Amino acid sequence: MSEFKVGLYQPPSEFTMAGETPRWENIKEMTLLGEQVGFDSVWMADHLIFRMGGGAPEKGMWECLTMLSALAAVTSKMELGPLVSCMGFRNPALIAKMAESIDEISGGRFILALGAGWHKPEYDAYGYPYDHRYSRFVEGIKIISSLIREGNVDFQGEFYQANDCTLRPRGPRAENLPIMIGTFGKKMLRVAAEYADIWNADWSQRFADIAEHNEELTRACEDVGRDPATLERTACVLLETEGAVGRGSSHASRNQPTAPMSNDQVVDVIGEYKERGYTHIIVWIDPNTPVAIERFAPVIEQLKK
């Protein structure tokens, strides 16, 4: 079994640092602190703007892959990845090129995590088409997978084209840069079974929230003739710890904090995923502060035993 890993989510949006907006220096500081206390990876959401409605404030976002490129240059051990990169925001061949470049900067620590997107207001605001997201994703992953695995592709689809496209120069893991797909839809789980090295479940607070998706993924692997054990399974967990303000934001109206979790409770929550065969759990610690990250060190130590 793969070594169990714990990842740190760094929210790139406004108001998510205990009510403040994280600047580059804050993100760098907390990421380096996370690396120091033992986190195995760092992740950022790939969104452009949040317009949730219902009285929630609009939130702007730092561009994910730009920030990850910078983190790749200042970290030395942590894996890095988007959570997850939206196929509809960039040309698929360009996504492969960017992934290869970030992997080069990091010395082979980048994970290309992909999804179909879901927040229509940001598509509308930035002028991206929102229709046929599943079909667009399928075409896009075919282009990306061919470029990363084989170094070239010639593809003519309804939404995307790649004409005698070659991925050069190659980074440190030519043909082996890992592809993660984050999804829980039945059709998309089948795509993950076909193309992904890693599957990422939705944000949750207990394994029971994703158990049905986990079983569906196993069936999808069997349907496409793949051993389910060859597809690494990962999940994201929201953790409200001492000083929590509700998903890191004093402006959040949808997710107000409940009682803070003790370190022992956190170990129990994450430990259930570990017992179920999950190899990498990404945590969003509320509050998103250096102090909260530092307090997480004993949890990581316990989980690695």
Topology:
Layout (H helix, E strand, L loop, with lengths): L4 E5 L14 H14 L3 E4 L4 E2 L8 E2 L3 H11 L4 E4 L2 E2 L5 H15 L5 E4 L4 H7 L6 H18 L1 E5 L4 E6 L12 E4 L3 H10 L2 E7 L6 H13 L8 E9 L22 H13 L4 E7 L3 H6 L1 H7 L2
Overview of the molecule:
This protein is of the alpha/beta class and 305 residues long. The chain has a single domain (5-303), classed as Alpha-Beta Barrel (TIM Barrel). Helices cover 37% and strands 20% of the residues. It is built from ten helices and 13 strands. It has helices spanning 24-37, 64-74, 92-106, 120-126, 133-150, 186-195, 211-223, 263-275, 290-295, 297-303; strands at residues 5-9, 41-44, 49-50, 59-60, 79-82, 85-86, 112-115, 152-156, 161-166, 179-182, 198-204, 232-240, 280-286. The strands form three sheets. Strands 5-2-1-13-12-11-10-7-6 form a nine-stranded parallel β-sheet. The chain has a two-stranded antiparallel sheet with strand order 3-4. It has a two-stranded antiparallel ribbon with strand order 8-9. A hairpin with an 8-residue loop joins strand 3 (49-50) and strand 4 (59-60). The radius of gyration is 19 Å and the shape is globular. The two termini are 14 Å apart. Mean pLDDT is 93; it is low at 249-257.
Largest sheet: 9 strands, parallel
What would you call the structural class? Answer: alpha/beta
The overall pLDDT average reads 93
Binned strand content: 15-25%
The amount of helix comes to: 25-40%
Give the overall form: globular
> How many runs of DSSP E, i.e. beta strands?
13
CATH homologous superfamily designation: Luciferase-like domain
Task: Give the CATH level 1 class.
Answer: Alpha Beta
Strand order in space, largest sheet: 5-2-1-13-12-11-10-7-6
Number of helices: 10
Indicate the low-confidence ranges by residue numbers.
249-257
